[in-house]
Amino acid sequence: MLAVFILSACFMQEVSGNFLSATPVPKEADAKLHLAEDKQEVKKEAKTDKKEETQGLKEEVKASEKVDEKADAVAKSLDTLDATVGKLAARAEELELNAEKDGASDEAKKAATQAQKDFEKADAQAEDAYEDNEEDIEADDADEADEADEMDNEEDEEAAQADEQDNEQDQMDMSQTLQKLDARAEELSNEAAKDGASDEAKKAADQAEKDFEEASAKEAREEDQKDMSQALKKLDARAEELATEAAKDGATDEAKKAADQAEKEFEEADDKEADERDQKDMSPALKKLDARSEELSKEAAKDGASDEAKTAADQADKDFVEADAKEAGEQDNEKDEKDNDE
């Protein structure tokens, strides 16, 4: 009987503290909140993004609270089960030793036998609890995997729909000439993709695609130039001209450097004009926040800038983004109200 007890006790020690209760422990949810960095995107999407992020954070906090509650309940259940098995093991061992003594009474032997049965029963329950939890955890993992797959499929479908809508919008924004080039490129591409397509068909498809891309780039430049100042148009034209020269076979390093410099000058001037346009739409308070953010950002970018300077720059940028988002939301509301009144 003592040998059986020792084996059972060994099993109890092996599973004690390691087996799980019948309630699986779910995984902690991670709340990840992303701030928009692009000021123009903030103006367009801040209102929607803020609502979605706030709602997502609330849901994740609630989920986290439920996880904590379940984890606490599981921990208490495990503690209780461990304590029970431990006490029964100790009692069974003690009574077994008494029953093996010379002259031990029948009552002592019966008590030892009963104690051993009680321990073995609790030990078996612990093992069953462990096995049940393994099955529950596997089931939960499978459910989570299914949910993840379902979410991935939904995201893929949404992405496909978004791409389709973008393509439709792109078609609507194209000129008649560009639409014809696009249709021709699509048609020749389908022909070139067929089995046994000739080299001439493939070359024609490549050329049609190139013609479309060049025409599309030209229209995009013309559209961009509508809002450009004369000075910026000149910089854009010069950058385009030098880029064309630098792309030619055998172009010198000087030509490539000149093209890079012209592109840099254009981008800097373009950013400056964009900032000036943004400033026109800003309230005086927002202009101050923008200026402060710009100033602190320059300080933080200097070599040897302190952590305090970087923290201050980050906070100033955050303050500006939040204020900008708030103003954008207010402007959207005003526009909606005006549209409703009309």
- Share of helical residues: over 70%
Structural class: mainly alpha
Extended strand count: 0
Mean pLDDT: 77
Low-confidence parts, pLDDT < 50 over ≥5 residues? Answer: 1-40
Helix count, DSSP H or I runs of 4 or more residues: 9
First-last Cα distance: 92 Å
**Range of strand content:** under 5%
Helix and strand sequence: HHHHHHHHH
Sum up the overall morphology in one term: elongated
Keywords:
9 helices, mainly alpha, 0% strand, 3 domains, single chain, elongated, 342 residues
Descriptive notes:
The chain is mainly alpha-helical and 342 residues long. It has three domains: 1-173, no CATH class; 176-226; 282-330. It has nine helices and no strands. It has helices at residues 2-15, 39-99, 106-173, 176-192, 199-225, 230-246, 253-281, 284-301, 307-341. Helix 2 runs antiparallel to helix 3 (106-173), helix 2 (39-99) crosses helix 9 (307-341) and helix 6 (230-246) packs antiparallel against helix 7. The radius of gyration is 36 Å and the shape is elongated. The model is unreliable at 1-40 (pLDDT under 50).
